[in-house]
Amino acid sequence: MDVVQDVAEVFATLPLFPVFNACHYTLMILTTRYDTGSLALSRSNPLANWVASMIACFGGYILADLLLGHSVLSFLAHPEDVVLASAIWYLLFYCPKDLFYKIISVLPLKLVITALKETARVRKLVAGIGAAAKVYPHSLLAQVIVGVAKACGNEFLLNFEQAVRGVWKPDINAILQPSFSIKACVVGAVMIILGRSDVLMGISQEMVVLAVSLWLISVAVSMKAFHADDPFKPVENLFSPFIFGSADSLPADAHHHHPPAPEPSPAPKPPSGRRRGKAAKAD
């Protein structure tokens, strides 16, 4: 047990810069690149493409600072991270022969990058919970919200990031369609808060963070490697009808979301034969 505790303590103190942050920036900019029109925009308007990529990279910091009443530009206090993210952005969009993109798209390397990125995600989750605990020490819900916002901020700001690139898809957002990462961070945030409050007897916060990290890494890597579905879906499909009801239990008028279309107005009557004759003579 002491060995595991030592490993957990070392794991909790690993610096995120540059390796873990580089993996995070790589996957975030890849997400931007995969979106429709992003490659064309990188040629027609590199500035807009860069701004959108930086929002994807630092969305967690921006959203968490916004929720806590801090400056949304506080991430600029770490220029080394901005330089690193910008360098990766340039390589992903402008590297000769697209060599950098082809290298990191190799599946084994992409799985390693995913594992390191999820490690950084959990660390940001812990940092967000800690920052919220200073402002809202008695609100566990606020701590969960800020922690998840810092860990998954890029997903919540996706619509804003797309708007910068001239794309508007309001029907696609993290509230309507939460990803596995968001759901896992909610569960992880609850576990970390319980570890901070000594509810989990005999289990330190470092060990909770290590356990959450290993769980998130294993599931995320498996989903990417085998194209697996969200593991939360079977649980949701099982319990959702009992807790929230099913679509079959809706009232009959609940399916009519829009008022019926108005009946088309009758076509105007053609002019009488006498009028047509007069019109022909006038011509």
UniProtKB/TrEMBL annotation:
<dbReference type="GO" id="GO:0005267">
    <property type="term" value="F:potassium channel activity"/>
</dbReference>
<comment type="similarity">
    <text>Belongs to the TMEM38 family.</text>
</comment>
<keyword id="KW-0813">Transport</keyword>
<feature type="region of interest" description="Disordered">
    <location>
        <begin position="250"/>
        <end position="283"/>
    </location>
</feature>
<keyword id="KW-0406">Ion transport</keyword>
<feature type="compositionally biased region" description="Pro residues">
    <location>
        <begin position="261"/>
        <end position="271"/>
    </location>
</feature>
<keyword id="KW-0631">Potassium channel</keyword>
<comment type="subunit">
    <text>Homotrimer; conformation seems to be controled by binding to diacylglycerol (DAG).</text>
</comment>
<keyword id="KW-1133">Transmembrane helix</keyword>
<feature type="compositionally biased region" description="Basic residues">
    <location>
        <begin position="272"/>
        <end position="283"/>
    </location>
</feature>
<dbReference type="GO" id="GO:0042802">
    <property type="term" value="F:identical protein binding"/>
</dbReference>
<protein>
    <submittedName>
        <fullName>Trimeric intracellular cation channel type A-like</fullName>
    </submittedName>
</protein>
<dbReference type="InterPro" id="IPR007866">
    <property type="entry name" value="TRIC_channel"/>
</dbReference>
<dbReference type="GO" id="GO:0016020">
    <property type="term" value="C:membrane"/>
</dbReference>
<keyword id="KW-0407">Ion channel</keyword>
<keyword id="KW-0472">Membrane</keyword>
<keyword id="KW-0812">Transmembrane</keyword>
<keyword id="KW-0633">Potassium transport</keyword>
<feature type="transmembrane region" description="Helical">
    <location>
        <begin position="75"/>
        <end position="93"/>
    </location>
</feature>
<feature type="transmembrane region" description="Helical">
    <location>
        <begin position="7"/>
        <end position="27"/>
    </location>
</feature>
<dbReference type="Pfam" id="PF05197">
    <property type="entry name" value="TRIC"/>
</dbReference>
<dbReference type="GO" id="GO:0012505">
    <property type="term" value="C:endomembrane system"/>
</dbReference>
<feature type="transmembrane region" description="Helical">
    <location>
        <begin position="207"/>
        <end position="226"/>
    </location>
</feature>
<feature type="transmembrane region" description="Helical">
    <location>
        <begin position="47"/>
        <end position="68"/>
    </location>
</feature>
<keyword id="KW-0630">Potassium</keyword>
